[in-house]
Amino acid sequence: MALNDLILLTSGGEWKLNGSDGAFTASSSLVASPQSFYGCSHVPPAVSGNMILFVQSGGSVVRDLGYTYVTDSYDGEELSIFANHLFEGKKVVDMAYAKEPYRILYCVMDDGTINALTYNKKQEVAGWHRHETKGKFESVAVVRENNEDAVYFVVKREINGQTKRFIERMATRTVKSTSEGIFLDCCLRYRGEPIQKLTGLEHLEGEKINVLADGNVEEGLTVENGSVTLSQSASLITAGLAYEFELETLNLKGENSHGLVKIINSIDINVDKSREDFYLLGTNGDVTENIRSIESINNQDYLYSGNIKAYSYMDYTESATIRIKQIHPFPLTINSISIDVTMGDSNA
């Protein structure tokens, strides 16, 4: 990999290659200097800004590597250390980095899942998220298309008793209305004159799918002879395999809170261009509140940006976390979560 120097990544360590005079010239001989000895796997590394992102030689650790002024050498951090549970017993088999718009490193694991890292070194952001589908991811590639880096996957699926492989493209998250969003897997989109019978779905024959038709959801439709019939006609239709989004915060920690039970009184959820139609889960995973506004009920394309007040209806607990779930193919972008909490004595 080429940075200020040529960086050689081997299975035994990381080396800086340069000329003996500090530059590559015709007369100077080459000098290789070791920088670290973590080692790199066979998965090709990626570059984010002035940092190299690579998989350690064992295949289950992701690291970065960049120039450090203090030591005048190349060094980095173990990026997967705070999400070891996503890598235990697994290895990265393929990797690609999408710079725009969200700076995400996609790591294909050998069990067919995706461990993705939102990475911004300048802002000290490194957050992992897991992606699963009805099937297995096998490889990933990033291609520049218009103003975004488009992410493509090869996905192995069992469809109607047969093994099939699809090349699937991750859709853009930049949408202006609910009906424009694509939040289904292995899906196709129809745009045209209003229709009630949707055809062309032979690739999902026999599967139960969800449909987003002009912003309205129809769930559990079975594809027969490559088609499904909607309850009413629509002109903008997205049909594909459903998946669920779930977010859980870390356990609330504060000054002098160790050993104390907590109860969450209220929650402020700040969202951006989102459909107000999602769920708040309790301690046992049961739904405690359906976040849904009158505007969302009256306007299927309505998107909201701002704060949403919610209540968890939870009992006192030592593990106070917030769990949010979206089961519909609606856009949901959460910027922040703020809570009002009361501490109590665990012996009370």
State the shape. globular
Fourth-level CATH superfamily of the largest domain: YVTN repeat-like/Quinoprotein amine dehydrogenase
As a percent range, the share of strand residues is: over 45%
Q: Would you tell me which CATH topology of the largest domain applies?
A: Methylamine Dehydrogenase, Chain H
The number of helical elements comes to 1
Number of domains: 3
Write the element-wise H/E pattern from the N-terminal end onward: EEEEEEEEEEEEEEEEEEEEEEHEEE
What is the CATH domain class of the largest domain? Mainly Beta
Backbone structural class: mainly beta
Poorly predicted ranges: none
Number of strands: 25
Mean pLDDT, all residues = 90
Write the CATH architecture name of the largest domain.
7 Propeller
Considering DSSP H and I runs of 4 or more, what fraction of the residues is helical? under 10%
Major sheet size, sense and barrel closure:
4 strands, antiparallel
Briefly characterize the structure.
With 348 residues, the chain is mostly beta strands. The protein has one helix at residues 294-298, and strands at 6-9, 14-19, 30-36, 46-48, 51-55, 62-68, 73-75, 92-98, 104-109, 114-120, 125-131, 136-145, 148-159, 162-169, 185-198, 208-213, 216-222, 228-241, 245-248, 261-274, 277-281, 287-292, 304-310, 323-326, 334-344.
List keywords for this structure.
348 residues; four-stranded antiparallel beta sheet
Task: Give an overview in words.
The protein is an all-beta fold and 348 residues long. The protein folds into 3 domains: 6-155, YVTN repeat-like/Quinoprotein amine dehydrogenase (Methylamine Dehydrogenase, Chain H); 175-241, no CATH class; 245-344, no CATH class. The protein is 1% helix and 53% strand. The chain has one helix at residues 294-298; strands at residues 6-9, 14-19, 30-36, 46-48, 51-55, 62-68, 73-75, 92-98, 104-109, 114-120, 125-131, 136-145, 148-159, 162-169, 185-198, 208-213, 216-222, 228-241, 245-248, 261-274, 277-281, 287-292, 304-310, 323-326, 334-344. The chain has a 4-stranded antiparallel sheet, with no helix packed on it. It has a 4-stranded antiparallel sheet with strand order 8-9-10-11, with no helix packed on it. Strand 21 (277-281) and strand 22 form a beta hairpin. The longest helix is centred in the last third of the chain and has 5 residues, at 294-298. The chain is globular and about 75 Å long.
